[in-house]
Amino acid sequence: MTRLLLRRLRDLLVILVVVGTMMFFVIRLIPGDPALAILGPTARPADVAALRSAMGLDGSLWEQYLSWAGHVLHGDFGSSITYHQPVLGVVLEHIPPTLTLAVLSSVISFLLSVAVTSWYAVSPRNPLARALDRLSALGMAIPDFWISLVLVLVFSVTLRWLPSSGYHSLFTDPVQALPALVLPLVVLVIGQTALFVLTLRESMLGELPLAYLRTARAKGLSESRVMLRHVLPNALMPLITQLGSNFAMLVGGIVIIESIFVIPGLGHLLMGAVSTRDFPLIQGVTLFVALLFVLVNLLVDLSYAAIDPKVRVS
Amino acid sequence: MRRLPLLIPIALLLAGCAGGATQNSGTDGPPVRGGNLTVAVPTDPQSLDMVANPGQVTAQIGNMMYEKLFEVDRDFTARPMLVDNYTTSQDRLVYTFTLRKDVTFQDGNPLTAADVVASLDRWRKAHRTGQLVSPDIDSITAGDPHTVQLRLKRPRYPIIDELASPGTEIYEAKNLAGLPATGFGQDKAIGTGPYKLKSWDIGQQLVLQRYDGYKSRSEQDWGGQAGAKHAYLDTVTYKVVADQDALVNGLQTGQWDHAMPTNDQYESLKANPAVVVHNLPGGNENVIIPNFTKGSRFADPRARQALNLLLDKPAINAATGGSKDLTIETGAFASPDNKSFYSTAGEDVYRQHDPARAKQLLAEAGVPAGSTVHIVTTNSYPEFGKWAVLLQDELSKIGIQTKIDTYDFATMLGTLTKDPAGWDLTTLFFDSALTSPAQMPALTLGTLNGSSSAELDALLAQFNASTNADQAKSTVDKLQDLTWRQLSVITLSQSRLYAAYSPRLKGYDNFYRIFWNSWLAP
Amino acid sequence: MRRNRTLVLAAGALGLIVLIVLVLPVFLPSVSATDPVHRLLPPSAAHLLGTDSYGRDVASRLVSGGRASLGLSALITVCAAATGLVIGLVSGFFRAADAVLMRVMDAWMSFPAIILAMALAISLGASLWTELIALTVIFTPFTARVIRSRVLAVASRAYIGAARVSGMGRWKTLLVHVFPNVLPLALVQVVVLAAAAMLVDGAMSFLGLGIAPPTPTWGNMIAEGRSYLVTAPWLVVVPGVTIMLCVFLLNLVGSALRQAVDPRARTLHELQRLRTRTT
């Protein structure tokens, strides 16, 4: 276990170095820089150069890279060009909205998918249960940006039931926060639940032919008891893996939904940073997202290994 | 779930049918003090330093916080603001400004001549307009604490207008010492205006609050940015809403009280009785910019003439203007509201339309049918993409192919300047309410498309040497005429802008994002 | 049996869509002809699906946009499946390469997809090629992982060991024994990839990172139609429903095929997860 952990930590460092370096050069290949973005089309080249230098963007690419990497090693991610604040602080400020969406949508989707699947497993003849189960295939096919537009139109603009956008902290202002969260959560939950239902169903189907079920049935347990007591718990493992890696991806950027619903999360931050060419901020967010992604995946793997020692963690 | 696809079109139709004509609710009643106004802005201001950051949102928030020696009224005429009165020497070379004596900065310090000198010196050095004016300025000096003397090297007719232009805000001298090119941070965002910075959640919202020590001027009827300013609202909250649809939806559902949406949204907002829609003075000059640089397909004047002949401007305007109310079919670089700069000279060239002749001229200029024209545009402003689409259609009708490269705004600028001969056409719009040639991109575009000329420079000098409004206007006519002869830009139209706001917003002068003298009806 | 019927029906419907997209443009009005007088017309006999804000025929654009959207999905699928297959095969079969390749794949996957797509679209201009590169890069590690796990399973089987003992070269073993066993899974993978690619392509176009207007794609049609959601809902509803239908059919075909090829290949869902990367 310790060796595994050490090896994964080493990998993590390698990944961060690779991602950080790639990002640094990728964004600098883009023509147009923050100075030009601010000064506009009629600016004199000399003024653009002066501003660029004041932003710390002069010197060769290589020099800039070394200086940046050196600072990062000392825990200094630099200052955002547009926010005039340390990158780390800006990133930390934008985490709560994304995390709120990711956690809530994951939990809701998990519960929903377990409920739908077990209902269907227990009463496969119930038409509603069957319909819900079948709908998951459709849920997978709905483009989320499209359903976002449609939901806003129906529930905000036409019916006026819910705000069309906005974000408030769930902890400091729950009364305003909840209604604003409903639509973005619904959009995220539709896609995720569909995926989870499919995963769970498939994993349950995989359990069915196994021997222990025959024993259980032979003991005289009813079919629904077999399903709920034996099949479901055993089939949950793949779903938990799915949940974990899904979560890691959500944290990595809910770009479109944050932009449609004006939620100041990491995806929103990243889009803004790219359009203003805020290089230090883009680098900071990328590194952070990569770190989060790797850590969450590691946690999933470790918990997987802890629950079931037979699993080889690769 | 299953029924959803059926439900949508019905809901849409309902939304589409609702509404009637919008009426401004007559008298606004007596002002009410207090409350918060929420205003949606398309981007974060990024900086509150109007010299370091010439962006529109910065300017519109800055106008609530800072003041200049002069400010424009609702007709874009410069009126004294921090200046109490001023004298001009006989030879028009020396201006002596006497400052108002009771003015204090939002940190309590009194306004002095030294602050004015420091602010204007920085403007000359670091702001684009200041740099263009600077060669004519000999010195700006403080006489006594309330007197500033401006000495010119040669008479400059628009100098007062230029002292009312963005970038000339007066900051405290102590806050300007040793500033980098990136400007000052929010701790130094201190002016003499009726509202001061309360908080700023970068990327999310910015809140201004009343400055209680503000001493107002007394002129009630100037409007715009000039005259008396009464801070009725306790606070004004600017919310950053980048997404256009979120902006409009939030306005309709009461999440904010004021927004300036794109022209696309005009008709549907106007049909909504819960929203007041009103035109703003001034507007945008919509332009197609041909590249004069050698190597471009439009380096030859005949090619530019051909392009002008080809463009069916009324059709383009109809397809992209959003509404007839918002489109003024004119080739002028200034808005008709901007009376001293609006000129109809060259209007006949603007109205020319002859695709057959265009084809012939293009061929003469070395751009035969089958050639490809490279258009560089941006998706940051939806209009630009639309013009590019229509341009492509019209060019294809005379056998010219197009390659459209769509970048985001910063990349577009980068691409245009990095490879000066690598593009043929681009699209932009300019503020058409500016009040001196030095501020006008249409006349100072040489750095971008190589359109500067001796004739243009001579006319600009002639304008600056004017001694009265009639002389100035006749030079404006010549400048406008030259623009249409050289085709440094091909103006498609003037777009009027509009504001859409809650009927509760009263006392608003329909002047951009100026909210002093405004209040919220209970 | 039921699986097969679903497969036939779904595949048939998809084939029909492809046929329409390929043949119909000949009979429809031009895609790029603008007509400012007849803008935002609701569906009628002259314009089956109405007109857009430039007065262009929506039906023509939908069909022509289908060429771009379906074509691009197909291209991405082929490219990502091919690169993923090669990386997966090599990494699953050669232990030495595995450690390195899988770390690279991990780094690759943790790189925010959207940044990469933006960087490409912004620096090279939004076009078919930048989107193709971006999406191929995004999809490859997922395919590689799925193929790799299958290769690992196949390689542990007895006959592979036997082939090795009988003196067969490693590369030859890989090609002769492992590859044919992995191929069916790769084919299923292709279908699932195509569905995912279509959704992600829609999202990219929506963000302005895909094929740029005026070339129509289903995604950029939705993006362009957004401003008229209230006044001209068909501009958004029509392409949205079309994307949904295609992805739905592709998923049906994919899951039916999978049942046929390998009932226990649950790793396939790795790919479908991709949609959350771009939400």
From TrEMBL, chain A:
Annotated ranges, domain ABC transmembrane type-1: 95-300
rRNA-binding is among the record's keywords: no
Keywords: Cell membrane, Membrane, Transmembrane, Transmembrane helix, Transport
Positions of transmembrane segments: 12-30, 99-123, 135-157, 177-200, 247-269, 281-300
Main location class: membrane
Tree of life domain: Bacteria
Subcellular location: Cell membrane
Transmembrane helix listed as a keyword: yes
Membrane topology: Multi-pass membrane protein
PANTHER family xrefs: DIPEPTIDE TRANSPORT SYSTEM PERMEASE PROTEIN DPPB-RELATED
Family the entry assigns: Belongs to the binding-protein-dependent transport system permease family.
Name of the protein described by the UniProt record: Peptide/nickel transport system permease protein
Natural source organism: Kutzneria viridogrisea
Lineage of origin: Bacteria, Bacillati, Actinomycetota, Actinomycetes, Pseudonocardiales
From TrEMBL, chain B:
One Gene Ontology term from the biological process aspect of the record: peptide transport
Keywords from the named record: Signal
GO MF annotations, alphabetized: peptide transmembrane transporter activity
Every Solute-binding protein family domain range: 79-415
Pfam families associated with the record: SBP_bac_5 (PF00496)
Keyword Signal carried by entry: yes
Signal peptide: 1-20
InterPro entries: Peptide/Ni-bd, SBP_5, SBP_5_dom
One cellular component term from this protein's GO annotations in UniProt: periplasmic space
Protein name (record): Solute-binding protein family 5 domain-containing protein
TrEMBL record, chain C:
Keyword terms: Cell membrane, Membrane, Transmembrane, Transmembrane helix, Transport
TM region positions: 70-94, 106-126, 132-153, 174-200, 234-257
Membrane topology according to the record: Multi-pass membrane protein
Pfam family, one: BPD_transp_1
Domain of life: Bacteria
Compartments in which it is found: Cell membrane
Domain ABC transmembrane type-1: 70-254
Keyword tRNA-binding: no
Family label: Belongs to the binding-protein-dependent transport system permease family.
Protein name in the entry: Peptide/nickel transport system permease protein
Organism: Kutzneria viridogrisea
